[in-house]
Specification:
146 residues; alpha+beta; four-stranded antiparallel sheet; 5 helices; 20% strand; elongated
Length: 146
């Protein structure tokens, strides 16, 4: 990736709502050149989209947990992500190396709802779970160091 494209990605990762005028000014390009480069980065899939970062607690989801899952049967198909996709409380699913197969990031309103979600995960995917509850989050969603 060219250095100017790295700079554009870095700028947009820290402020996805940055105007093309500001992006051009900060990257040293013309507005049309900045716009073309962003469109090219989007077309290549380097920039996959733009999101609003929300405060989950303000939406009634103060409890965050990481749920590690491991299949009961190692010979079973590796389809847990598809089996769990319908559970909206699962914010992210990461395939991992190690004893567990996946780590799920979940957000829920209460421990009781977490307990219910864990039962749903176990039943839907045929897995055992190990749960770590988040006490605080000093930082998250940091832009990559390019």
């Amino acid at each position: 990736m060219e250095e100017i494209d790295r700079q554009i990605v870095t700028l947009l990762a820290s402020d996805g709502r940055m105007s093309f005028t500001e992006l051009a000014r900060r990257s040293g390009l013309s507005v049309s050149a900045a716009h073309q480069r962003v469109r090219r980065l989007e077309k290549r899939g380097v920039i996959r989209g733009y999101v609003a970062l929300i405060e989950p607690a303000d939406l009634g989801l103060p409890l965050t947990a990481f749920v590690s899952i491991k299949p009961f049967d190692a010979a079973a198909p590796d389809d847990a992500p598809q089996r769990l996709a319908h559970l909206a409380s699962i914010e992210a699913c990461h395939s991992v190396a190690g004893e567990e197969s996946y780590i799920l990031k979940v957000r829920v309103p209460s421990p009781a709802v977490l307990e219910d979600l864990l039962q749903q995960i176990r039943a839907a995917a045929g897995v055992s779970t190990r749960t770590t509850i988040v006490l605080s989050t000093p930082y998250e969603n940091r832009p990559p160091d390019l």
